[in-house]
Amino acid sequence: MTRTVAILGAGPVGLAAAAHVLERGMRPLILEQGAEVGHSVRAWGHVPMFSNWRSSIRAAAARRLEHARWQAPDPEAYPTGAELVEDYLQPLGQTLAPWLRFERHIVAVSREGIDKVNNAGHGTTPFMIDTEGATGEARNGADAVTDATGTWFQPNPGGAGRPVPGELGHLRFGYGMPDVTGQEQARRGGKRVAVLGGGHSAMGTLIALSNLSGTSPIWLCRASTTTRARGGGAADRLAARGVLGTGMARSVDGGGIRLEKRVSSCRRLRDHPADGRIGWRGHRGG
Ligand SMILES: Cc1cc2nc3c(=O)[nH]c(=O)nc-3n(C[C@H](O)[C@H](O)[C@H](O)COP(=O)(O)OP(=O)(O)OC[C@H]3O[C@@H](n4cnc5c(N)ncnc54)[C@H](O)[C@@H]3O)c2cc1C
Q1: Ligand 1 site-directed mutation target among 32, 58, 107, most atoms within 8 Å of CB
Q2: CA–CA distance, 94 with 140 (Å, rounded to integer)
Q3: I need a surface site. Which of 248, 250, 261, 266 has the fewest CB within 10 A?
Q4: pTM for the whole thing?
């Protein structure tokens, strides 16, 4: 009997996993909350990637695409998120159409008929994946599960593992990597903008903000040193990522970005109606 592997999420990892599953003679069932493949990547389509095409395309996916007369991009070129979707994820998704289910938001993964306190037969009982979506609730059975839901929809909140009071739903507090030199420019240009985080999204956003005239970016860094965030610089194994770290170091050292280290947790987000500012109250780690 053909085994079914449920793949949670139709991003780059989920779609590549489906290509591997098919090559091994099994059946993928790709459950995606969005209406199209690459739902997360589309949200940062404006960002140039630090991985070139060679590192971004999985071999099993390329083999499927070659059957579909796909024109492979230049392996040494660096796509934006939008190009990754258009030139790779979309055509790959078309080859996987019979196994793709859109607008299925996964709410639970369990073993069929097994409750929280019963372990008997746990390892051999099929999985059950509960979804909600435009067509209502559904239960999807599978022999195995691959979680490829990524992290984009699970951002690291401002508090110690949870949002601080006032954070959720605040109109001037956002997550991810906003297009600050494009459609978000009017909201952030000419202002003091704080960015909390030490990853590449935070660095890319800070560098973009520092290039906006009249904007003062502040880097709220949880770590006590910025060495890790700055990456390997000129020696980084991914050259474009090294350039990001080097650019960040230059902006901080030159005063274009104000750095606040050891921001270990924040306690409250407050509005100051008199001057329209947001107050970010917290404390420093040791
Ligand atoms: C700005 C930016 C730049 C980046 N640049 C690079 C780079 O250059 N190189 C690199 O290797 N990585 C880069 N990354 C990391 C990048 O996100 C991953 O490499 C890649 O997107 C991971 O793919 P994924 O399929 O695991 O996750 P995602 O792309 O996040 O896809 C997850 C999918 O799961 C779906 N999903 C999530 N939750 C549910 C749910 N409950 N129910 C149903 N579906 C769900 C989402 O809608 C989405 O379609 C970058 C990330 C960002 C934010």
Answers
A1: 32
A2: 22
A3: 250
A4: 0.89
